[in-house]
Amino acid sequence: MPELPEVAALADFLDGRMAALPIRRIDVASLSVLKTAEPPYTALAGRTVSGVERIAKYLVIRTVPGAPADTEPQLDLVIHLSRAGWIRWSQSLAPTPPRPGGKGPIALRVHCGLPGEGFDVTEAGTQKRLAAWVVRDPSEVERIASLGPDALSLDRAGLAAVLAGSGGRLKTLLTDQRTLAGIGNAYSDEILHAARLSPFAIAKTLDDEAVDRLYGALGATLREATERLAGLGVGKLKAEKHTGLKVHAREGLPCPVCGDKVREVSYADRSFQYCPTCQTGGKILADRRMSRLLK
């Protein structure tokens, strides 16, 4: 799933290629992706891209009128890539629209600038969760309106207040977008490993020293990843993300800090990874497919 650093890199990439260019048309290959009908997606044709931004894990393509007859001062195309969505930029897009309802990965195609320029919004797999909205303001998207503070916007006191108000586990808190926006499964694993904290630690029970470690690890992990991905083409972002991971998706491999074997806990259709020596005092957390935690 693209998280804050990848979405920031995608926003910068698109902004550098789309800003000040006209949107020539938008093709919709999967109608289920569109979550709004008014304004229609066709209203974006002929408008000029004023910039591309990130809100948490959402891409926001902002547009302004491209002709005097266009009376909408602001229309935004908001895209949430969910777990398996991605952006594929091209300078040779086919002029023929993708077939609606087709079995291919393309959900949405945006033509902008010169003929052939633009990008496809794709989604791999069979679970279709990618979503797009056309709105006059991003706050009209209910999911955005309900977001918690951006993960990089909090100071130490702000994070401490969030932790003190939660009786949940740290792993759950870090990935709950209504509590803290922008972090997903991968970077929450990395943040907790860097902070030397158990994924199952209860948020409100952390002492001051543990809060300090978590605050430092959160900022350092997200900023380092964001800086490392900045300026890369969309084709390189996924691979580069994985090169910086120390525990996530590394089950069975040695922890790069202590050498212990990285372990995994699975639940539902997800899993997370951690290092017992660095994070749980050597205790092994049982896989969620088992009946209980090992004591």
TrEMBL record:
The lineage of its organism: Bacteria, Bacillati, Actinomycetota, Actinomycetes, Mycobacteriales. Keywords: DNA damage, DNA repair, DNA-binding, Glycosidase, Hydrolase, Lyase, Metal-binding, Multifunctional enzyme, Zinc, Zinc-finger. This is DNA-formamidopyrimidine glycosylase family protein. It catalyses: Hydrolysis of DNA containing ring-opened 7-methylguanine residues, releasing 2,6-diamino-4-hydroxy-5-(N-methyl)formamidopyrimidine; 2'-deoxyribonucleotide-(2'-deoxyribose 5'-phosphate)-2'-deoxyribonucleotide-DNA = a 3'-end 2'-deoxyribonucleotide-(2,3-dehydro-2,3-deoxyribose 5'-phosphate)-DNA + a 5'-end 5'-phospho-2'-deoxyribonucleoside-DNA + H(+). Its cofactor is Zn(2+). It comes from the Bacteria. PANTHER family: FORMAMIDOPYRIMIDINE-DNA GLYCOSYLASE. Gene3D superfamilies: 1.10.8.50, MutM-like, N-terminal (3.20.190.10).
